[in-house]
Amino acid sequence: MGTRTLETRWGGILLAILMVVTGAAMAGERSTGQAIEDTLITTKVKASFAADPQVSALAITVETDHGVVNLSGVVENEAERQRAIQLAQGMEGVTRVDANKLLVKGPVRAKLSPAEKNRCSPRHCKGFTPHPEADVAAYPVRMCHRG
Question: How, if at all, do strands 129-130 and 96-104 pair?
């Protein structure tokens, strides 16, 4: 076997390996057509939000990947959230809407003074209850049972 034949075989094998590796890497990427279609869907969804008086287009981020629309941001209430999901689902080309990251604003909690935060503790009061304005899950604010 000549040197040229051996080089040709190794060159062919390396080329085949390179093609397999490159093909596998590109399998997870979007084609140009898919990228254009996703951009079109995103634009249409954002335009529908801007045209709808119930939805704040500036509060919601829209991203599309392979027809799946991802909504994120913070909206004023659950009705606005549901309306945004409904509008996105109504667009042509949308296969699914993921709104797990589209949150509703929670109620504003009153600020407590340091004296109110430390008003009662289990050490000196056996009948303490959670303060009605406190987020007990975030920090254990207690109010004396005596008022």
Answer: unpaired
Q: What predicted TM-score, i.e. pTM, was given to this entire model?
A: 0.56
Domain span at residue 117? 110-147
Q: Say which CATH number the domain at 99 has.
A: 3.30.1340
pLDDT digits (tens, 9 = 90+) for 104-119: 987 655 565 665 555 5
Could you tell me the two tokens for 46? 């954002």
Compute φ and ψ for 72, nearest 5 degrees.
-145, 160
> Which residues lie below 8 Å from residue 78, measured CB to CB, with a gap of 6+?
104
Burial of 57 (0-12, 13-18, 19+ CB in 10 A): middle
**Do 31 and 56 contact (CB within 8 A), yes or no?**
no
pLDDT digits (tens, 9 = 90+) for 2-26: 555 555 566 556 555 655 545 444 4
